[in-house]
Amino acid sequence: xxxxxxxxxxxxxxxxxxxxxxxxxxxxxxxxxxxxxxxxxxxxxxxxxxxxxxxxxxxxxxxxxxxxxxxxxxxxxxxxxxxxxxxxxxxxxxxxxxxxxxxxxxxxxxxxxxxxxxxxxxxxxxxxxxxxxxxxxxxxxxxxxxxxxxxxxx
Length: 154
Hints:
- The chain is α/β, with parallel strands linked by helices and 154 residues long.
- The protein folds into two domains: 1-37; 40-142, CATH 2.40.50.140.
- 28% of the residues lie in helices and 28% in strands.
- It is built from three helices and six strands, in the order αβαβββββα.
- The protein has helices at 8-37, 44-47, 134-142; strands spanning 40-42, 56-63, 77-83, 88-94, 106-114, 117-125.
- It has a five-stranded mixed beta barrel with strand order 2-3-4-6-5.
- Strand 3 and strand 4 form a beta hairpin.
- The radius of gyration is 25 Å and the shape is elongated.
- The relative contact order is 0.14.
Protein backbone atom coordinates (compact mmCIF):
# COMPACT_ATOMS: atom_id res chain seq x y z
CA UNK A 1 0.00 0.00 0.00
CA UNK A 2 1.40 3.28 -0.97
CA UNK A 3 0.55 6.45 0.86
CA UNK A 4 0.36 9.66 -1.05
CA UNK A 5 2.09 12.68 0.40
CA UNK A 6 -0.09 15.69 0.92
CA UNK A 7 0.77 18.77 -1.00
CA UNK A 8 2.43 21.55 1.02
CA UNK A 9 -0.68 23.67 0.53
CA UNK A 10 -2.84 21.09 2.35
CA UNK A 11 -0.24 20.65 5.09
CA UNK A 12 -0.41 24.40 5.77
CA UNK A 13 -4.21 24.36 5.84
CA UNK A 14 -4.23 21.45 8.31
CA UNK A 15 -1.57 23.13 10.49
CA UNK A 16 -3.43 26.48 10.53
CA UNK A 17 -6.76 24.75 11.29
CA UNK A 18 -5.28 22.81 14.20
CA UNK A 19 -3.58 25.99 15.50
CA UNK A 20 -6.80 28.00 15.38
CA UNK A 21 -8.78 25.22 17.05
CA UNK A 22 -6.15 24.86 19.80
CA UNK A 23 -6.16 28.63 20.37
CA UNK A 24 -9.95 28.71 20.69
CA UNK A 25 -9.95 25.83 23.19
CA UNK A 26 -7.12 27.46 25.17
CA UNK A 27 -8.88 30.85 25.32
CA UNK A 28 -12.12 29.18 26.38
CA UNK A 29 -10.36 27.41 29.25
CA UNK A 30 -8.63 30.63 30.38
CA UNK A 31 -11.81 32.73 30.33
CA UNK A 32 -13.91 30.06 32.02
CA UNK A 33 -11.37 30.04 34.88
CA UNK A 34 -11.56 33.85 35.15
CA UNK A 35 -15.32 33.60 35.44
CA UNK A 36 -15.02 30.97 38.21
CA UNK A 37 -12.57 33.13 40.19
CA UNK A 38 -14.43 36.45 40.01
CA UNK A 39 -15.81 37.45 43.41
CA UNK A 40 -18.41 40.21 43.29
CA UNK A 41 -18.86 42.87 46.02
CA UNK A 42 -22.23 43.80 47.51
CA UNK A 43 -23.57 45.94 50.32
CA UNK A 44 -26.22 44.41 52.63
CA UNK A 45 -28.99 46.32 50.80
CA UNK A 46 -27.81 45.04 47.42
CA UNK A 47 -27.78 41.42 48.61
CA UNK A 48 -31.54 41.48 49.19
CA UNK A 49 -32.02 42.51 45.55
CA UNK A 50 -29.66 39.94 44.01
CA UNK A 51 -29.71 36.21 43.39
CA UNK A 52 -26.50 35.38 45.27
CA UNK A 53 -27.43 32.30 47.33
CA UNK A 54 -24.67 29.71 47.09
CA UNK A 55 -22.28 31.99 45.17
CA UNK A 56 -19.01 33.22 46.67
CA UNK A 57 -19.25 37.00 47.07
CA UNK A 58 -17.82 39.80 49.19
CA UNK A 59 -20.05 41.94 51.37
CA UNK A 60 -19.00 45.08 53.20
CA UNK A 61 -20.40 47.44 55.76
CA UNK A 62 -20.05 48.72 59.31
CA UNK A 63 -20.26 46.36 62.30
CA UNK A 64 -23.44 47.32 64.13
CA UNK A 65 -22.90 48.23 67.78
CA UNK A 66 -24.07 45.65 70.33
CA UNK A 67 -24.32 42.77 67.86
CA UNK A 68 -20.91 41.10 68.23
CA UNK A 69 -20.98 37.60 69.80
CA UNK A 70 -17.41 36.34 70.08
CA UNK A 71 -16.21 32.79 70.77
CA UNK A 72 -19.64 31.15 70.78
CA UNK A 73 -19.54 27.96 72.93
CA UNK A 74 -15.80 28.54 73.55
CA UNK A 75 -14.99 28.06 69.86
CA UNK A 76 -13.66 30.39 67.18
CA UNK A 77 -17.23 30.92 65.90
CA UNK A 78 -18.28 34.58 65.85
CA UNK A 79 -21.56 36.24 64.88
CA UNK A 80 -22.20 39.91 64.26
CA UNK A 81 -24.36 42.18 62.13
CA UNK A 82 -23.08 44.56 59.48
CA UNK A 83 -25.06 47.43 58.05
CA UNK A 84 -24.97 49.95 55.23
CA UNK A 85 -27.55 52.08 57.10
CA UNK A 86 -30.27 50.71 54.81
CA UNK A 87 -30.19 46.98 55.52
CA UNK A 88 -28.59 44.73 58.14
CA UNK A 89 -26.96 41.36 57.47
CA UNK A 90 -26.01 38.67 59.99
CA UNK A 91 -22.44 37.43 59.47
CA UNK A 92 -21.14 34.14 60.86
CA UNK A 93 -17.37 33.69 60.81
CA UNK A 94 -15.36 30.73 62.10
CA UNK A 95 -11.76 31.77 62.66
CA UNK A 96 -9.56 34.32 64.36
CA UNK A 97 -10.96 37.84 64.19
CA UNK A 98 -8.59 40.48 62.80
CA UNK A 99 -6.89 42.50 65.56
CA UNK A 100 -8.59 45.71 64.42
CA UNK A 101 -12.09 44.19 64.33
CA UNK A 102 -14.53 46.13 66.52
CA UNK A 103 -17.99 47.66 66.54
CA UNK A 104 -18.70 50.66 64.28
CA UNK A 105 -15.73 49.74 62.04
CA UNK A 106 -15.80 48.80 58.40
CA UNK A 107 -15.34 45.15 57.42
CA UNK A 108 -15.35 43.16 54.21
CA UNK A 109 -16.39 39.51 54.45
CA UNK A 110 -15.92 36.92 51.72
CA UNK A 111 -18.19 33.89 51.73
CA UNK A 112 -21.65 32.60 50.82
CA UNK A 113 -25.19 33.58 51.70
CA UNK A 114 -27.04 30.65 53.25
CA UNK A 115 -30.60 31.33 54.30
CA UNK A 116 -30.78 34.60 56.21
CA UNK A 117 -27.11 34.68 57.25
CA UNK A 118 -23.81 35.18 55.48
CA UNK A 119 -21.21 32.50 56.27
CA UNK A 120 -17.80 34.15 55.86
CA UNK A 121 -14.64 32.25 55.02
CA UNK A 122 -12.46 35.37 55.12
CA UNK A 123 -12.81 38.60 57.08
CA UNK A 124 -10.93 41.86 56.53
CA UNK A 125 -11.08 44.80 58.94
CA UNK A 126 -10.40 48.47 58.38
CA UNK A 127 -6.79 49.26 59.29
CA UNK A 128 -7.00 52.86 60.46
CA UNK A 129 -9.55 55.58 61.07
CA UNK A 130 -9.30 57.18 57.63
CA UNK A 131 -9.00 54.13 55.40
CA UNK A 132 -12.06 52.66 53.78
CA UNK A 133 -11.99 49.82 51.23
CA UNK A 134 -12.73 51.19 47.76
CA UNK A 135 -15.74 48.92 47.33
CA UNK A 136 -17.29 50.11 50.61
CA UNK A 137 -16.65 53.79 49.73
CA UNK A 138 -18.15 53.33 46.26
CA UNK A 139 -21.19 51.58 47.70
CA UNK A 140 -21.74 54.33 50.29
CA UNK A 141 -21.29 57.04 47.62
CA UNK A 142 -23.81 55.28 45.37
CA UNK A 143 -26.34 55.34 48.21
CA UNK A 144 -25.51 58.93 49.18
CA UNK A 145 -24.20 57.88 52.61
CA UNK A 146 -20.47 58.57 52.14
CA UNK A 147 -19.02 60.88 54.80
CA UNK A 148 -15.74 62.56 53.94
CA UNK A 149 -13.21 62.25 56.77
CA UNK A 150 -10.91 64.94 55.45
CA UNK A 151 -8.96 62.49 53.34
CA UNK A 152 -9.31 62.16 49.64
CA UNK A 153 -11.87 59.48 48.76
CA UNK A 154 -10.46 56.28 47.27
